[in-house]
Amino acid sequence: MLQQGKTLQQSADAVGIAVNTARKYKNSNTLPSKLKKVHSWKTHTDKFSEDWEQLKEMLTVNPGLEAKTIMDWLIREKSNIYQESHLRTLQRRIKVWRATEGPEKTIYFPQKHYPGDLSESDFTHMDKLGISINGLPFKHLFYHFVLTYSNWESVTLCYSESFESLSEGFQNALWELGGIPKRHRTDNLSAAVVPPAKRGRFTDRYQGLLDYYHIHGENINSGFPNENGDVEQSNNRFKKAVDQSLMLRGNRDFDSIESYLQFIDAVAAQRNSGCRVKFSEEIKELRPLPSRRQDSWRVLDVSVGKSSTIRVLHNVYSVPSRLIGEKIRVIVKSSTVELYYAQRHIESYPRIKGEDKQHIDYRHLVANLLRKPRAFMNYRYREELYPNSFFRLAWEALQANYPGTCVKTYLGILHRAAMNSEEKVTDVLRVLLRHHIDFSLENIDRYLEKPPVPEQLPEAKVEEVDLTAYDNLVKL
């Protein structure tokens, strides 16, 4: 600007600096960046000079030690020298040491992906999102399948990381995709990989699934989840997208599982719409599907014991007592257990998660318990004989008020629930509890014959608030 004929004052004002500063730059004939002196001196005394060698040795032996932990130790050992205000200085010293002398850090090498080459999958838990069905917490997870080139994804609802869930989710993804990639990679799922996890060692059932679709299977090295990084990142992004959509929706409760799945399908479709270009390239490279899907369930033949129960995959299920001594066929699917006898469907139950648990239906037992009421008190699975909290409250009230006849009365209530409707009996128990009426069989029968009229909520009358007193208080 000086070269354009502007005065020193005008030039300084134009660039926003003081005229004296402008004069200094002009007279020095040097760029301002060259005038700055390198800061090579210490502004404070080094508090840690005497102990730094020991601290370095501690960090070398245990690189994960945090500055706060070391600072607490120093304060305990030398309280006359160190205090909490020195923590920030120690943090800077350790940060510099780690960057210049500390252990090598793990390098993540970006990978190049090719259309139709690799897919990855994993299970992702959804419990932390607080989703509920009709007000009840809905614990579940999704099988998540991702194409690494286009990031196209597919999700399938499941309740455990079983092989049946893996097979159903994997096949759902392939048939929704309409083709087969060359390779598929998972982490070291017990449903797929033989323990201890070794690369290439799969269970017979999982290897059979891969062979059926002529796809090469891979699993990651133990302790290196980054090898399955595409689906891991996609898990996080998918759950974040679901969380954001739930916020827009305004609540996290759904009328049914079906309506929740429609919501999830819309989220997945929205995410897949962003990868249309790459997906169109990928779909051309996929191999064709076989003529039909492989069965994704397990078939077991089990005998019904004298307790009217069967044991399926380390869990216990009750069955109708007429089947005692018979052998029945059990089809174990990802979320259900189906029972067949003489090629006829008998029952279907939700599949139990985990092991050493039980699903006991009181309808299978109550007739026998009425004939043997003493068996109820010490029955191994008695906790399963309370269909809901109102039945438990009824039992506790009967036990407290009528200890001599409580068992017979409660079994009578259960029998009425089995013969009539559990929902109707629950409504009656709710009314009896609310009005402090005895849980006698006579009262149960009376209300079952003539359902109670729902109570009308009293009309709330809110009087207008007089704020005059507050106005007078403010004047004071």
Descriptive notes:
The two termini are 67 Å apart. This protein has 17 helices and 15 strands. A five-stranded mixed sheet has the order 5-4-1-6-7, sandwiched between helices. It is α/β, with parallel strands linked by helices and 476 residues long. β10 and β11 (315-318) form a beta hairpin.
How is the topology of this model organized?
Elements (H helix, E strand, L loop, with lengths): L7 H8 L3 H10 L3 H4 L16 H10 L5 H11 L9 H14 L17 E8 L6 E2 L2 E2 L3 E7 L5 E6 L4 H15 L5 E4 L17 H9 L3 E4 L9 H21 L3 E2 L2 H17 L2 H8 L14 E6 L5 E4 L2 E4 L8 E6 L3 E6 L2 E7 L7 E2 L6 H6 L17 H13 L4 H14 L2 H13 L6 H9 L18 H8 L1
Parallel strand pairs: 1-6, 2-8, 6-7, 11-15
Antiparallel strand pairs: 1-4, 2-3, 4-5, 9-12, 10-11, 12-13, 13-14
Helix pairs in contact: 1-2, 9-10, 13-14, 13-15, 14-15, 15-16
